[in-house]
Amino acid sequence: MTAVIEVQGLTKRYKDTLALDAVSFAIEKDTIYGFLGRNGAGKTTAMSILTAQNFATSGSVRVFGEDPYENARVLSRVCFVRESQKYPDDATAKHALAAARLFFPHWDQQLADQLIDEFQLPLRTRIKKLSRGQLSAVGVIIGLASRAEITFFDEPYLGLDAVARQIFYDRLLADYAEHPRTILLSSHLIDEVANLVERVLVIDHGRIIMDETTEDALQKATNLVGPADAVDAFTRGREVIHRESLGRVSSVTFLGTLTAAERSEVSAAGLELAPVSLQQLIVRSTQHAGTSEQGAPAADLKEVAS
Amino acid sequence: MSAVVSSPLGRNRILNVVRLQFINKVTYIWMPLLVLGASWVISILIFAMIPIDEPKFGGGAQAPLWALMAVGIQAMTLSFPFSQAMSLTRREFYLGTLAAASVTGVMLSTAFVLIGLLERATNGMGVNGYFAYLPAMWESGWLGAWFTYLVVTMFLFVIGFWAATIFKRWGTIAVTLVLSGIGLLLVGVVFLITRLEAWPATWTWLVETGPLGLAFWAVPFIALMALGSYLTLRRTVA
């Protein structure tokens, strides 16, 4: 694997807040990342610095091995779709897409046209008159059709309904299969993107608290479903991160895995192992960070993994 | 992928910024032309109402110049954030935007000169009133007038752009401080001239230099301001 982005000790300090606290990570080529975290965790700041739109207080950023700042060679291979993108005053979606076609060397007009159709995006309405969802569609279309080698999507789905979001996920996956590239998708709808992202990068309070494959992350927890008392018997003494009950049936997610012996006990007791929700796992680890010492959840999760 | 890396990026991208700015045709073309046209018509009407036989000269032609200041502000506040989304460097955006403003400047100056020539040919549109054919500006012929008008256009554009960039980067207080600073500087110059009792010499110099001469003097000044606004933009966050 080769890294297309390398970040070392990246710190961003605004007047009285530390948005990024000596963050280090690498982004592998041709992989879809889920860049996850709560509001204000530092996701947008990090992506802005990676695309040279914002400036680091300290630390180093390498994109394709180079400093992206004022570097057309690097920037022309990168596309950053912001949730709150501003467009020129008179611009229509048609104008914005025509501009994108000028600047992104891999732009695929056919794909853009297809997406315009699917999102039912009005081309001749001024962008400032578009609905929130239509505004998001403009960004999504630019992000997909630009086919940049690294594409950042910063919460691209705001205002998009479930159908439109599904179109986005489907097209993203289909196009990615044909044209592999690196995608960083920042999202709050974690379970929606869980099947899409190959790796998760979780940021909390300006620190990376999880950086691994989605599969590995999900293996850190176990979800048991069955009669409430039987489930409780198994989960007693374990760190429960989510519990749902419906009548006498409980579904409990806890940190840790089961040994082979425990697995047979589970099936003997008539309990079922169900898929763990990535959202619950991440909600729990970021909640934890908010209430305890910073850095604790990372250590926590590593312990579980070992 | 290597084809992309080696493709001629630089110049194409800057030219494309000009095209990007001209998406906004209202700002760069129609609004300045409309202001010029409207102030021209209003001037003719006023000239026609003044019952004297001598040639009448009006200053209405400065109106579109101020519009260019607004263009400079909009180029920064509205187009810069979008240029960032188009993965442009700040340098590419700046050079392309300056080129776009020059296109507008050339267009306005040409319209100004054409109006002037028309006024000369029609004895001030038949009412002996001159909106563009102003003696001081046309001393060195139409080319001199054209150049003078262009320089003032670019001067105001750069001021608007720089002020908007300072605002983006440091906020309202910084803009206020800079403007107050310029005001103080001007008062200082006035004080100095007064103290040196140099007013007659100053006026003589201004008159002798004339609008065209002043326009030439303004060129290095504009270049300096353009450099200043680029240096400000280099670290500005959209």
Structure description:
The complex is a heterodimer of chains A (306) and B (238). Chain A has 306 residues and is α/β, with parallel strands linked by helices. Chain A has two domains: 3-214, Rossmann fold (3-Layer(aba) Sandwich), CATH 3.40.50; 217-305, Alpha-Beta Plaits. Chain A is built from twelve helices and 13 strands. Chain A has helices at 43-50, 72-75, 93-103, 109-119, 132-145, 162-178, 190-193, 214-218, 228-235, 260-268, 278-291, 296-305, and strands spanning 3-13, 18-28, 32-36, 58-63, 78-81, 150-154, 182-186, 199-204, 207-213, 221-227, 240-246, 249-255, 272-274. Chain A has a six-stranded mixed beta sheet with strand order 5-6-7-3-8-9, sandwiched between helices. A four-stranded antiparallel beta sheet of chain A has the order 11-12-10-13. In chain A, strands 2-1-4 form a three-stranded antiparallel beta sheet, with helices on one face. In chain A, helix 4 runs antiparallel to helix 5. Chain B is an all-alpha fold. Chain B has one domain (2-233). Helices cover 82% and strands 2% of the residues of chain B. Chain B is built from ten helices and two strands; from the N terminus they run H-H-H-E-H-H-H-E-H-H-H-H. Chain B has a two-stranded parallel ribbon with strand order 1-2. Residues 1-8 of chain B have low confidence and may be disordered. The interface between A and B is large, with 38 and 33 residues.
